[in-house]
Design brief:
It contains 19 helices and 22 strands. By secondary structure, it is of the alpha+beta class. The chain folds into 4 domains: about 210 residues, 2-Layer Sandwich (Heat Shock Protein 90); about 140 residues, Ribosomal Protein S5, domain 2 (2-Layer Sandwich); about 100 residues, Rossmann fold (3-Layer(aba) Sandwich), CATH 3.40.50; about 120 residues, Four Helix Bundle (Hemerythrin (Met), subunit A), CATH 1.20.120. A 9-stranded mixed beta sheet has the order 1-6-5-4-7-3-2-8-9, with helices on one face. A 5-stranded mixed beta sheet has the order 10-11-14-12-13. Strand 10 and strand 11 form a beta hairpin. The protein is elongated and about 120 Å long.
């Protein structure tokens, strides 16, 4: 701590560990990124004004006779200070400690997990995770925050050099709101220049719907009469961008508002600016992000659209404004019909809000359909980021499932790129009456699954379902375009009716002769006796071409991958017994069938065959010791 920044008394506290690490990052941030500190502090000030304007709807005394909301900037070159003041809600003592001394908010752990050690990347996370205040330490070696909560009589001062401790003290503060004073580093004095400040505000904060005013000294008069006078000028547009005509907003302005409203640093993938008129009037400026928001998979699955009523901010946590599967959207919706003093509780199940929700959903889904058709490559990148979330809408009641299915994309055995269900149906083989899929965690692992061998041999396309949500919507949806979804890991997949593709023979081994029916009958009976109730059944199959054996679920039972998921999450104690299917053309199966015909005991061989099938499924063997013992015996005989 330097001599120029002495503590002014009060209680001294230490930052929590996460804040200390964060401050170390921003203090050493790349110089080219440093101007974002002013954007973040102005954005926080605007949020404080928004909060108070909303709270005052139900308690006018909070305004204290002053309903003017503004953000004021001033600088002192001699003292090397830059000040950002607002007339918003202000903070109490506990809020100053909670908001500035700790990262006491949702997403803290994810923020810390995201830190990469790359200064530029980590700096870009600051605003996104709601900790933009700390960006002040990119340019300042000392920060003082004075604040008085609207409705309280006492103010408090928070001060710190960002190196482990902060002090907080009670002060006499007569104006509500918050004043942040930055004592700038010697290499950051450019931010004390009037033109530099104006440029930053016009670039990043021109859209802020409150006046941003800049105090500066200007020379008045001429010659000996000239003198310096304090001038206070508004330096931003101050009008809500979503109320403007689209023709009056530039692409750069749209991008900067997206950065402001989402606290993200990517550019929007798509921008929807619209006004709905009729029985219900509302306007919207909604963005589809390019990158996933950090909180996309939070358990709460909350909407992050900001709801305004007649330009007055109401909430950014209105769960009824969007369906859950569109929670990645960012932006603003402004209603003309909701009452201005509506409470957050009254928003639940509100009929006006329900109609706005339906209108937004229709617009967004229409945009996604259009982009899916017109810009395949870009849409596939979008789907890679948000497809898993959109598919959540397929098992929720009340959604247009068929429209969601139309925009859904999947990897398949036939394509390296994503395919639509319409494309899949158009390529179905003669005699094929179902949409085949295989579910699991990893596409590459699934591609080696023995259950696919017969489908590949006939050139039948199979979709890879690799998102956990797939297991839940597939049973409830059931079909697309009149074609049933059918898992290849279930029994009952009869491939004999499907006509092979003309080049299918190039994909398979030479046709092998199967063991004779009598030998196979005796073999299957012997295997059933050896395995008992560890399997549901043993059957001959045409789905295998190069593997000897595979496991499948009963045709009417639970899919194998779903069982695995439920067991992992402790929602299923024990998986059901599987059907073991054997390949009658495989040399091992024919040898075992011949051994049975000659009177041999194949109990150990049958158990090894079952364990082999389990290993192919990536499952843990129930008796590794027994497996090792039997394998050793067979190796010994073979050698």
């Amino acid at each position: 701590m330097t001599d120029t920044h002495q503590k002014t008394g009060g209680e001294t506290m230490r930052f929590e560990a996460e804040v200390g690490r964060l401050l170390d990052i921003v203090a050493n941030a790349l110089y080219s990124e440093r101007e974002i500190f002013l954007r973040e502090l102005i954005s926080n000030a605007a949020d404080a004004c928004d909060r108070l304007r909303y709270d005052a709807l139900s308690d006018e005394t909070l305004l204290e006779g002053n309903s003017d909301f503004a953000i004021q900037l001033s600088f002192n070159k001699e003292a090397k200070t830059l000040t950002i003041a607002d007339s918003g809600s202000g903070m109490s003592r506990d809020e100053l400690i909670g908001n500035l001394g700790t990262i006491a908010r949702s997403g803290t752990s994810r923020f810390m997990e995201k830190l990469s050690g790359d200064a530029k990347k980590d700096t870009n996370l600051i605003g996104q995770f709601g900790v933009g205040f700390y960006s002040a330490y990119m340019v300042a070696d000392w920060v003082s925050v004075e604040s008085r909560r609207a409705g309280e009589k006492i103010g408090h001062r928070w001060e710190s050099d960002g190196k482990g401790e902060f002090t907080i003290a009670e002060i006499e503060r007569f104006a509500r709101g918050t004043t942040i004073t930055l004592h700038l580093k010697d290499d950051a004095l450019e931010f004390l220049e009037e033109m530099r400040i104006k440029h930053i505000v016009s670039t990043y904060s021109n859209h802020i719907p409150f006046p941003i005013k800049l105090e500066s000294m200007k020379s008045v008069g001429e010659g000996d009469e000239a003198k310096d006078e304090l001038s206070i000028d508004q330096i931003n547009d101050g009008s809500a961008i979503w109320t403007k005509n689209k023709s009056d907003v530039t692409e750069e302005q749209y991008k900067e508002f997206y950065h402001h409203v989402s606290h993200a640093y990517d550019d929007p993938w798509s921008t929807l600016h619209f006004r709905a008129e009729g029985m219900i009037e509302y306007s919207g400026l909604i963005y589809i992000p390019t990158m996933r928001p950090f909180d996309l998979f939070n358990p709460e699955r909350m909407s992050k659209l900001k709801l305004y009523v007649k330009r007055v901010f109401i909430t950014d946590e209105c769960d009824d404004l969007l369906p859950k599967h569109l929670r990645f959207l960012r932006g603003v919706v402004d209603s003309e019909d909701l009452p201005l003093n509506i409470s957050r509780e009254m928003l639940q199940n509100n009929p006006i809000l329900s109609k706005i929700r339906a209108g937004i959903t229709k617009k967004v889904m229409g945009e996604l359909e259009k982009r899916a058709e017109s810009d395949t490559e870009s849409y596939n990148e979008f789907w890679a980021n948000f497809g898993m979330v959109l598919k959540e809408g397929l098992y929720e009641v009340g959604n247009d499932h068929q429209q969601l299915l139309k925009i859904s994309r999947f990897h398949s055995t036939e394509n390296d790129t994503l395919v639509s269900l319409s494309d899949y149906v158009a390529r179905m083989k003669e005699g094929q009456d179902a949409i085949y899929y295989i579910a699991g965690e990893d596409k590459d692992a699934l591609s080696r699954s023995p259950q696919l061998e017969g489908f590949k041999a006939k050139g039948v396309e199979v979709l890879y379902m690799t998102d956990p949500v797939d297991e839940f919507w597939l049973p409830s949806i059931g079909e697309f375009d009149g074609k049933q979804f059918k898992s290849v890991t279930r029994a009952g997949s009869d491939l004999s009716e499907i006509k092979a593709a003309p080049n299918a023979e190039d994909k398979t081994e030479d046709k092998k002769e199967a063991a004779d029916e009598d030998a196979m009958g005796s073999f299957i009976k012997a295997v059933k006796e050896a395995l008992g109730d560890t399997v549901a059944d043993v059957k001959s199959t045409d789905r295998l071409t190069s593997s000897a054996v595979c496991l499948v679920a009963d045709e009417n039972g639970m899919d194998m991958n779903l069982e695995r998921l439920l067991k992992q999450h402790k929602q299923l104690e024990q998986a059901s017994a599987r059907i073991m299917e054997v390949n009658p053309t495989h040399s091992l199966i024919k040898s075992m069938a011949n051994a049975v015909k000659g009177g041999a005991d194949i109990t150990d061989a049958s158990l090894l065959l079952l364990d082999q099938a389990r290993i192919l499924e990536g499952e843990t063997l129930p008796d590794p010791t027994g497996f090792a013992y039997r394998m050793s015996k067979f190796m010994e005989k073979g050698l």
